[in-house]
Amino acid sequence: MKELKIQKLEGTVILKNGRVIDPANKRDEVTNLVIIDGKIESIGKAGEIDPKAQVIDATGLVITPGLFDMHVHFREPGREDEETIETGSRAAAAGGFTGVACMPNTTPVVENQGIVQLVKSRQTAYCGIYPVGAVTKGLECQELAEMGDMFHAGAVAVSDDGKPVTNSNLMRRALDYCRMFDIPVISHCEDVFLSADGAMNEGALATRLGLRGIPNAAESSMAYRDAQLAALTGGRLHIAHVSCAETVDVVRQAKRRGIKITAETCPHYFTLTEEAVKGYSEMTRVNPPLRGKADVQAILEGLKDGTIDCIVTDHAPHSHEEKEVEFDQAPTGMIGLETSLGLCWTNLVETGVLTPSQLVEKMSLNPRNILKIGNGSAAGHGAGLTTSGKLEIGKMADLTVFDPKAKWTVDPEEFFSKSRNTPFKGFNLTGKTVMTVLDGSIIRT
C-alpha cells in the first residue's frame, strides 16, 4: 500500500511566495504564510526570518483553507473491503481535503450515538471525520432515528442518503426536530416510483441502448416537496447531488422565497453527460444518473450564480467484483476524492465558470458553514478538528496547497482509495494537490 508522508510541524515554517486565497477574508495575493508550532503566526511579508525556520518555496502554488467534502461514503463499519475510514482519509488528504462528512448508510447504519462515536473513534491523522446520522432507523423510513443523541455525540447533519425519505410526514418531523439543533437535513431527492428499475437518464439514448430511463422529475419533484416542507417548518434543508436543470430551478426559486435551503453538486454532473454511458461502462452508473447537455449547462449556471453552494464528490467506493458487471446490474456510484480538485480546476476555473476564490468557497468555506463546523453549534462536539474554512491568525493551520498548472493523467492504480471505480481513467487534468496541513502536520504524497 502507498503511504503518505507526515511531517510534524515544529518551530517556524514559512510557505514563501504562494498565492494565498481566502474568500472569507477577501484575500487573494502572492505572499508568505508563517506557521509556528502548527499555528498560523502571520500572513504577509515575513519580518526577520528565524535562521532555523524551515522555508518551503511555494512560488507558483496556491494556498487555501483546507478543502472540505460534505458528502462521502467510507463504508466503515460493514464494508471494509471497499473502503475504510483510514484508506478514505488517505484518499481525502491526497486529494487536498482536510475534512469530510461521512454518510450513514453503513452496516450497521449510523442511527444512534454509539455508532456515531464508533465512526469518530476511527479518526486518523490524515483528515477530520464528521459523521452524518440517519434520518430514519435502518434507512427504512418507518421511524425517526435518535437525532438528538446523535447530535450530542457529534453528528453534524442527518440524511438517509442512498435512499429518499419517502414519507412526507416523517420528513416534516425531521426538519422540525432538527431546528432544535440547527443542523441540516440532507435530502437524497428521488421519487422511487418514477425511478423504479431505471439505470440511466431517460431519453432517446436510453431507448437506443435498451436501458430503462430515470426522468429529471424523479429528482426535482422531491426537491420541490422538501422545499415546501422546509418552508412549512423553518428547518434547514440541503439538497444532495443535484443533477438536473429542474432541481437547480427549484433551489433557485426557494432561495428567492427565503426558504432555508442549500445545495450541492458533484464533478461528474458538470463534466460528463449521458453520452458517457455509451459502451455500457458500469463506471458511469450513478444515482442520480448522468444527464443531458442542457442539464450540465444548468448546473454550471447554478454554480456560477450561487444557487449551488458547494461541490462534493459523493465518493462511493465499490469492489471490482460487484461493480464490473452488466451496466444495469452494477451498483451506483464512483469514487472522487482524488480527482475532484483537478476536475474542478480544469472544468470550472480554466473555463471561466468560477474564479479561483469562488471555487475555494464551494470546496472549503461553504460546506463548513452549512454544517456549522468551526463556526457554530457543531464546533464544540464535532470531530475534534474544528476548522472554519478561513485562515485565522493564532489558529491551527488547516491548509491545502496545490499546483494550479500541474498537468497529470488520471491513473486509478495510483489512488490511495481502496477501490478503483472511476470513469475518469486516462483523463488529462490540470491542477493537483501538493500537500495538506492539518493538526500540526504536513501531509504529502
What does this structure look like?
The chain is of the alpha/beta class and 445 residues long. Helices cover 28% and strands 22% of the residues. It is built from 13 helices and 19 strands. Strands 1, 2, 3, 4, 5, 6, 17, 18 and 19 form a nine-stranded mixed beta sheet that branches. Strands 10-11-14-15-16 form a five-stranded parallel beta sheet. Helix 8 packs parallel to helix 10. It is globular. The two termini are 12 Å apart. About 2% of the residues have low confidence.
Q: What low-confidence regions span 5 or more consecutive residues with pLDDT below 50?
A: 376-384
Q: Tell me the β content.
A: 15-25%
Helix content, binned percent: 25-40%
The description of the largest β-sheet is:
9 strands, mixed
- Average pLDDT, to the nearest integer? 95
Number of strands: 19
What does the radius of gyration come to?
Answer: 21 Å
Structural class: alpha/beta
| Tally of DSSP helical segments | 13
For the termini, the CA-CA separation is 12 Å
Shape verdict: globular
Task: Give the gist of this structure.
This protein has 445 residues and is of the alpha/beta class. It has 13 helices and 19 strands.
Name some characteristics of this structure.
single chain, 445 residues, alpha/beta, nine-stranded mixed sheet, 19 strands, globular
List the helices and strands and how they pair.
Layout (H helix, E strand, L loop, with lengths): L4 E4 L3 E11 L4 E10 L2 E5 L10 E4 L4 E4 L1 E6 L12 H11 L1 E6 L10 H9 L6 E4 L15 H7 L4 E2 L8 H11 L6 E3 L4 H4 L4 E2 L2 H6 L3 E2 L2 H17 L3 E3 L5 H12 L4 E5 L2 H4 L21 H12 L5 E2 L8 H4 L16 H10 L6 H16 L27 E11 L18 E11 L2 E4 L1
Parallel strand pairs: 2-5, 2-6, 7-8, 8-9, 10-11, 11-14, 12-13, 14-15, 15-16
Antiparallel strand pairs: 1-19, 2-3, 3-4, 6-17, 17-18, 18-19
Helix pairs in contact: 2-3, 4-7, 7-8, 8-10
